[in-house]
Amino acid sequence: MKVAVLSSGGKDSSAAIWWAQCKGWEVTHLVTMLVKGGDSWMFQIPGTHLVEKQAKLCSCSWLGVETEGVAELEVNDLMSALSNLEIDGIVSGALRSDYQKTRLERMCEDLGIKSFTPLWHQSSESHMDNLVANGFKVMITGVSSEGLGKEWLGCILDETSLSELKKLASKYRFHVDGEGGEYETLVVAGPHMRGELKLDFDIHWDGVRGHLEFN
Fold it and tell me: Could you tell me which of 129, 167, 155 has the C-alpha nearest to residue 210?
C-alpha cells in the first residue's frame, strides 16, 4: 500500500503517520493544507509550514496545498493535488468531526482511492495517554480555552503535565484532546520520526488566548 497522510503537524496526524508505518505501508507524502484565508472548516492553520521539516524526518516527501479555506472549495483544492499522486489511499487523524470524515470519504471515492481514519472515535484520555506513553513529544502551540494560560504555550506534554491537563479539562469542561479547538499542537519528535525538530519561537499572549510564532 502506498498512502499519503494529511498532516497539520499536530498530534492526531502524527499518530496517523505512525499507524500507517506500523501497518507496513509506504508513506509517500505528508500533505498539508496551507490556508491563506483567516479560517478553515476542516484544517488547522498555525504551524503547518513546519510539516515540511517533519516530512524529512519521516523519510517522505511533503506536498503543501494552498487554499483560501472556503467551505466545500477547500476539499476541491485537496482533491486536485491528490489526483497527481500515485497512491492507494489517504490517512487522516480525524477523531470526531463528521464534517471532515464524510467529505474526505466522498473525495476518495471520486478519486478511486481509500480513506483511512484510524483514530475515529478513540477515547480522548486513552488517545492522549498513548501518545505520551509511546514517546510522542507533543508541544502545545496555541491555547484558547478558560483554564489554559500562557504557561502552557511551548509546553511539551509528559505524564505530569498531561495529568494536570486532565484536571483542568474536568474543571473547566473542555476536551482533554483539544478536539473542540481548545488548544493546538505540534509534534517535535516521536516513533514515526528519525530525529527531533529544534525550534525557536516567540510567545504571543493577549491575556485570554495565545499562540507561538516560530522563527
Answer: 155
Residue 207 pLDDT > 90, yes or no? yes
Q: Where are the beta strands (DSSP E) in the chain?
A: 2-6, 26-35, 61-67, 89-91, 114-116, 137-143, 183-189, 201-205, 210-214
Range of the domain at 166: 134-214
Residue 122 covered by a domain: no
The HSE-up count of residue 88 (CA atoms within 13 Å, CB side) is 6
CB-based burial of residue 173 (10 Å sphere; 0-12 exposed, 13-18 middle, 19+ buried)?
Answer: exposed
- Residues paired with 32 in a beta bridge: 64
pLDDT tens by residue, 43-79: 555 568 899 999 999 999 999 998 886 777 889 999 9
The answer to whether residue 178 is domain-embedded is yes
Q: How far apart are CA 104 and CA 102, in angstroms?
A: 5
- What's the Cα-to-Cα distance from 112 to each of 26, 78, 86, 182, rounded to whole Å? 18, 14, 11, 35
Instruction: Answer yes or no: is 52 within a domain.
Output: yes
Residue 139: partners with Cβ closer than 8 Å, 6 or more residues away: 154, 155, 156, 157, 185, 186, 187, 188, 199
Cell 497512491, residue?
Answer: 87
Nearest to 183 by CA among 214, 215, 135, 150: 150
Answering whether pTM is above 0.85, one says yes
